[in-house]
Amino acid sequence: MEKIRDKGGRFISKGKQSKITSIESNRQKNVTVEVPSTNSQSDPNDPPPDPNDDLQDPIHILEHSYAYDPSINGHCDEEVVPDENEDTSHLIEWDTGRRILELGFVVNKLIEGCYKCKHSLNLRDICGEKRYGLGSLLHIKCTLCSTVNYVPTGKRHSRSDNNGIRAFDVNTKVALGMLHAGIGEKKLSMLLSVLNIPPLSKTSLKKSEREVGRAVEDVAKNSCKEFATAEVESFGNDDLSVSFDGGWQKRGSGRSYSSLSGHAAMIGKETGKCIAYATRNKFCRVCERAERTKKDIPEHDCRKNWSGSSKAMEPDMCIGMMKDLQDSNIHIGSIIMDNDSTTVARARAEVNPALKKQCDRNHTLKQFTNKLYELKKSKNYKELNSKTIQHLSKCFKYCISQNENDPSGMKKNLEAIGRHVYGDHTFCESWCKYLASPLTYKPIQLPYHRYLNNLDLKSDLTSLLSLYISQADKLVDLGSTQPNESLNNTIASKTPKQNFYSGSESNDFRVAAAIAQKNLGHQYVTEVNERLLLSPGEITSSNARKVDLKRKKTKETEDTRKKGHRKRWTSIDRRSQQK
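The structure corresponding to this sequence follows.
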């Protein structure tokens, strides 16, 4: 085998030389495919051919104009020029592996028959294939006139950013499925390879992802506008009450936050839907590559919009969303969030000085539990073990739940917690089982079923509870950021923290998909398809309805259980008052 050199004058290894030889051989096969002459006419009475058209057949003009082999005076969509670092999946023969076909569409094309003689075609007469991602053009030879016809395996559509060149619907939908399922190019390729289906190239998949992602963002933003208007109508005035929370695409240690991207959302208290969201990105792969190679930055959709610390992303996103809503004459009067004072301080200084803050119930309970563990660690109290802390946290939770809008009751029950674990039930109410059976009661929730007796611990515990007693007015009106936590879980399922998607638009696309799913349910997939002028399909729509219905029933069951739990506690209170 004669050695050859590349464009730089360097010798090419045997492996690269063999790959180039196979590519050239494949090109020769495409050139030798029988193609009808542009001057041939099946009927002398037909009009003369137009010299500006490559092929005169209307089927070719309407269905195949975008995807001819370049060697046959045509142009193809989504073709990737092979290089030495890519695999050779594009060299797979037509009879190797599996393919995805739209059966009804292909059957109709076969019935339409040969574009030249109209004789019906048969799949057993396939003589070649040109793949474009998961779609293909099957080269089928007519048994009557020996003309090679190009039959697509599925429907196609035009892309606005593709110079009118049409792409297979299946490639666009697999990109949407990738965003919806929260997987990336590698896992998608693994899935297809296990099914023995030739995978898409990275460039083709990225092209489809960008097409789908912009449609997903449009659907998410429109849904936020609709529910912001609905929130104003249901709340009755412009000063809305919303819950706010943010998150990062990289896990924080609690002391250090170094994520390159973050997200945040505002959810209406009345509708429970997202009315605004934002993302912050500190890195762009294209800009970084241009800076590293000292070249001009190419034109691209850059999503880098933050250069500060990762911890400062959350206050900035909150202020940005409040200002955007204010431009739409929607004002935020009350915000439910964790105990981050920085965000509220900046929002009051820059947007609304009269902004009210409601603490989150779950964050307040978590803060109380953390302070007990800090007390245990600093003073090394043996009685303050995990069982004791769990019991104190449970009592604190009951106190918060049973004294909503009752400051005096909140203060009394908070003071009762510190006395209760030491055997003093003077301030206890219906929640304490000692009142029902004083003679037989044992504190089974405490270690060794005994009351605590460490006086130093009692003093520290009393001091800790005194801090919360002084804030009783805030504790009686706590909000919940649980909808935001649920949204963060959905975002994490679409942008797993172990993967990095912030180098391109992919992270923003996936956050938008989670927002759309929060507002519209799984039916958002149908809306994205319709925005792309694609048929969503009965199976897609049916499965989305089924998943949304199951979620609705689950939520109704949970609400019924909570309602029954509240009724049970109310009846216990009434019986204790009668006694």
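The chain has four domains: 1-27, 33-37+52-200, 210-356+505-519, 363-478.
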